[in-house]
Amino acid sequence: MLQKVFLFLLVLISVGSTLIFPQPSEAITISAQSLMPKVQLSISPRNGTFIEGSLFEVPVLLNTKGTSVNAVELYIEFDPRKLSIVKPSGDKSIIAIWLEPPTYSNSRGTAKIIGTIPNGIVTSNGIVTSIMFKAIQTGQASVRISQGSRVLANDGQGTDLLTQFDRATYSIVPKPPEGVAVFSETHPFSDQWYNNNSPVIGWEKESATNGFSFAFDNEPFTIPDNTIDTTETITSFEDKPDGLWYFHIKPQRKNIWGSTTHFLVRIDTEAPAIFTPTQEVLTANVFQPTLISFFTTDALSGIDHYEVGVIEKSASTTLSSPIFVQTESPYRLPLKLTDDVRVVVRAIDRAGNVRDGSVDIKIISSRLSTFMGFIEEHSLIIFIGLLALILLLIIFHYLFGHHLLRRLRKIAHLLREPETFESSTPPKPPYSLS
Length: 434
Hints:
The longest helix is centred in the last third of the chain and has 38 residues, at 379-416. By secondary structure, the protein is an alpha+beta fold. Helices cover 17% and strands 39% of the residues. The protein has helices spanning 2-20, 367-377, 379-416, 418-423; strands at residues 38-43, 47-51, 55-63, 69-78, 83-89, 97-105, 110-121, 126-135, 139-145, 150-153, 162-164, 167-173, 182-183, 193-194, 200-203, 209-217, 234-236, 243-253, 256-257, 261-267, 278-281, 290-293, 303-312, 325-327, 331-332, 341-349, 354-361.
């Protein structure tokens, strides 16, 4: 019994001593740096695909995570083989005072930005700087914030805050080839019509071009499919209907399809509409001229001009070909034509197609019309002759007119008073009888 009581007292004493004097546990180590606030410098975007030769902007952002900061020392590293800096920008930045102007080196692939923020700032997405990069070579390009970068707390002591640094990776892909230069010897100008319905089209080929995909249709903006149709630089089409046709072609270079070139071809093989000229004689005119009127249309290219030729109806059409002159309606026939004639009017459209219309004319043959025609043809000579005749009459009048009139007046006076004439004759002396 006493033994059991003794054992109970020993257990009680042991438990009591443990409660009063606890056993020492393992030491807990706390780093002073881990107690410091953390901030984050990040790059936006962290991933992206850009075309070789293009420009893209990369902002560097600051997240203070609730801590007020007043200084940033930023170092950027990038791959100088793939990227080059066009300019670092401070136009939009939380930094108000630049301790050093932003600098960069494309040969080393570095950039440095140092500045302060008076009175500090608390931000979750503040822009420190924006860097404009140019993609100079295909491949994977990295941009990262180096470990030397620092962010200082706005605590009066400039405490160096623990900073999380960011990294971005960009894919630089080859530049798609531009549209090829297209030309045509049969249809060289896209704004002109041609009566050739079998166009031949060629294009230029750059180095490293795998091939071309093309289409030929009536739609202005067709994009050919992504199948290589040819590796040559020329093609032709035959017997195409009249209208507007479009040739579409795009190249493939380094397995990348380029933009599409569209080339317009205008085809018009139809002649202008059938027409018949009409004649009109102006009888109210003393010269009685004959006018030829004409008009027609063309469905596609339109009428470019008219030409008129005159031939004798009795002449063989195979041996006699009229001399055409370009003119407009109405056309006035020459008056000197005295025989029956045929007037041929030729309508020519803008594609060079020709349509002829003719009318037979009976020219009035009479002495009056011949005389009037002679006067009209020699009107200048006749006018000069009349003027010379009038001048001669005036000169003759002044040279001889006054003497002739004087004599005529004297004769008239004597005829009216003959007695006066007799009395004026002196009497003969009387004869003596002795």
